[in-house]
Structure formats: C-alpha cells, structure tokens
C-alpha cells in the first residue's frame, strides 16, 4: 500500500467542502451474491439464554489460551444483499464510485445518517462533491440475509461478498452504468475497514484507492467492545429481533453504546439515542474471525488514507 495526497484530497472534498452538483438520485437494490469461502467451525454448542452467552464471553476473554474452532470447511452459498446506489446530477464528472462498507452492529444507513438535515450524512457530502456511492448491508444487518451467525457469518464470507460485489459493479452486471467509472474506491468504517483492507490484500487490482476509518490492525481495542455483548438480540430488542439465532448478540443499552463509540462531551446526545434504537446484532462468528485474514497488501499500489480523529486517544 502507498499513502497519497490524492486520496486525502478526495476525502477532504467529500467531508469538508462539497461541490454543489444539484439533484442526486438513489436506487435500492437486492442483489443475489454467490460466493465460495472457507469458514471456521465453532467448537461449542449454541447459546440457549443470556446467562450462557455472558458466561462464554467471560471465559473467552480470560488470559488462558483459547481456540473457539474445531476445524475449517468450504461453503458455497447465495445470499441476498441489500444495497443502495446513489449518483449526483452529473455522475461521471469525477468518474469515481465509492463502495462504502459499514462496521459492526450497523447497517448501510450508517453512511446516510439523517437525524439532522445537512449533517452527519457521508453520502450527502459525497454526492455534493460529485462522487457516486454504493452502500450495502453486510450479512446479519439491515435487509440482507441473516444466516447462521456461528458458522457462516464470518470474515472470510463477508470478504468474499465484498469481492464479488466489486466485480459485479466493475462489470455492470447488476447496475446499469456502474461499469463506466474510472475509479472504484473502497471506504470502510471499523469492521468495514478491515474488510476493505482484506480486499486490497487478496484482490489488489479490484480497488483504485482505500479509505480506512475507525481502524487499527491492533485488535486489542476490540476486547472491551466484545466484553459487554453477551446479550441475545432476540431478548434485548424482541420487537425487532424475535426469532433470531442466539449467535446474534448485542450490548445492553445506549450507555454501553456510549462506552464503545462516543467520547463525552464530544457527541450529540440525540445521535446516541438513535444509535441504540437502530443498532443491529453482532454475529458471533464475525467477532471471532475479525483477525484471521491477512492484512498485508504489498501488491496494492493505489493510494490509502487512514483517518484518525483529532482525539485519537479516544478512537
């Protein structure tokens, strides 16, 4: 990977300035994506209640050596992926499509947060700057498929989906016009940054630039987040998640969301409340496989921007 002022300028244009390109348009898609990937077989029985889930999380975080897997198997499956494709009034003025991948416990609306008109929406800023965007719900989130969270929703599977979506966009196989861009830039947040990094490692020619936010290749930061997620989503928000597998877990309430994501007093309290109301479960297999894939991408020669906030010690 190389770092470049070019992609820094792209990010600044989107986030800070924006260029008014007039009206934009967005279209929602449901895309069947078929992938083949190796998955890890978990070595423990599915949880039956919150007590078992929290006890397991507690044991997993001990300092003793811990291997949650009993083996590896290859799967080939087709998933329904919910996506939104947005273009500015003149979509090929800048000739770049940004492929946006959200983090854990979110969905694609993370990129288009509409609490306050004109604020918080990355998509709105990108469109005003002349960029087209493609957002998608990862497995277990939003309107995409919600398969087995233990043995299927794992990093290798989600990477394979991102790779396949990128190929489909470059080929114009699903969305008419998506093959006309000169540049395809992958933008991630948190777990979405991990996946964008993984893509640069395994398919370096598929991306023309990478923007990584909420990102570190030191996964020790994930332990506090994981520590309080021993709540079954089906009992935490039964009105939304009744019937979900016990492998879909979440945190208890909005104050833990504050602990994990918001540094007081530098946030809007309304945003915290909406974050809790609209959260999505964390698939356990996704959490367990966050660090199993290769992040080294020596063959990727495109520009890279890693975004660290001014309060970097609180990221």
Summarize the structure.
The protein is α/β, with parallel strands linked by helices and 315 residues long. It is 30% helix and 23% strand.
Q: How do the strands and helices of this protein lay out in sequence?
A:
Blueprint: E1 2-3, H1 5-17, E2 25-42, H2 50-60, E3 69-87, E4 96-101, H3 122-128, E5 132-136, H4 155-171, E6 183-189, H5 191-202, E7 209-213, H6 222-227, E8 231-232, H7 233-236, H8 238-241, E9 248-250, H9 254-261, H10 269-277, E10 282-283, H11 284-288, E11 303-307
Parallel strand pairs: 1-11, 4-5, 4-6, 6-7, 7-11
Antiparallel strand pairs: 2-3, 3-5, 8-9, 9-10
Helix pairs in contact: 1-3, 4-5, 9-10
* Nearest-integer average pLDDT: 88
What composes the largest sheet? 8 strands, mixed
Q: How much of the sequence is in beta strands? A: 15-25%
Shape: globular
Unreliable stretches (pLDDT < 50, length at least 5) are: 2-22
Classify the helix fraction into a percent range: 25-40%
Distance between the termini: 23 Å
List the secondary-structure elements in sequence, H or E: EHEHEEHEHEHEHEHHEHHEHE
Supply the helix-strand structural class.
alpha/beta
Largest beta sheet: what is the strand line-up? 1-11-7-6-4-5-3-2
Rg result? 19 Å
Compute the number of strand runs: 11
What is the tally of helical segments?
A: 11
Structure commentary:
This protein has 315 residues and is of the alpha/beta class. It contains eleven helices and eleven strands. The protein has helices at residues 5-17, 50-60, 122-128, 155-171, 191-202, 222-227, 233-236, 238-241, 254-261, 269-277, 284-288, and strands at residues 2-3, 25-42, 69-87, 96-101, 132-136, 183-189, 209-213, 231-232, 248-250, 282-283, 303-307. Strands 1-11-7-6-4-5-3-2 form an eight-stranded mixed sheet, with helices on both faces. It has a three-stranded antiparallel sheet with strand order 8-9-10. α3 (122-128) links the parallel β4 and β5 (132-136). α1 (5-17) packs across α3 (122-128).
């Amino acid at each position: 990977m190389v770092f470049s002022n070019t992609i820094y300028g792209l990010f600044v244009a989107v986030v800070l300035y924006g260029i008014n390109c007039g009206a934009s348009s967005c279209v929602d898609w449901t895309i069947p994506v078929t992938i083949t990937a190796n998955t890890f077989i978990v070595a423990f029985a599915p949880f039956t209640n919150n007590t078992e889930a929290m006890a397991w999380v507690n044991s997993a975080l001990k300092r003793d050596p811990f291997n949650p897997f009993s083996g590896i198997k290859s799967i080939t499956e087709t998933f329904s992926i919910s996506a939104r494709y947005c273009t500015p009034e003149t979509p090929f003025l800048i000739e770049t499509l940004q492929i946006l991948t959200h983090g854990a416990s979110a969905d694609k609306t993370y990129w288009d947060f509409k609490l306050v008109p004109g604020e918080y929406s990355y998509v709105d800023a990108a469109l005003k700057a002349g960029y087209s965007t493609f957002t998608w719900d990862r497995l277990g989130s939003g309107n995409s498929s919600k398969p087995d969270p233990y043995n299927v929703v794992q990093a290798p599977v989600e990477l394979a989906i991102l790779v396949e979506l990128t190929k489909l966009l470059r080929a114009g196989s699903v969305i008419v016009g998506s093959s006309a861009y000169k540049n395809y830039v992958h933008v991630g947040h948190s777990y979405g940054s991990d996946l964008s990094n993984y893509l640069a490692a395994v398919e370096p020619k598929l991306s023309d630039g990478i923007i990584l936010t909420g990102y570190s290749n030191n996964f020790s930061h994930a332990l506090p987040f994981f520590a309080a997620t021993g709540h079954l989503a089906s009992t935490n928000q039964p009105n939304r998640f009744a019937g979900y597998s016990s492998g879909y877990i979440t945190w208890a309430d909005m104050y833990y969301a504050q602990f994990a994501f918001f540094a007081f007093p530098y946030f809007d309290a309304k945003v915290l409340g909406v974050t809790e109301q609209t959260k999505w479960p964390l698939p356990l297999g996704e959490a367990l496989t966050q660090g199993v894939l290769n992040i080294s991408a020596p063959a990727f020669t495109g520009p890279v921007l890693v975004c660290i906030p001014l309060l970097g010690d609180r990221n």
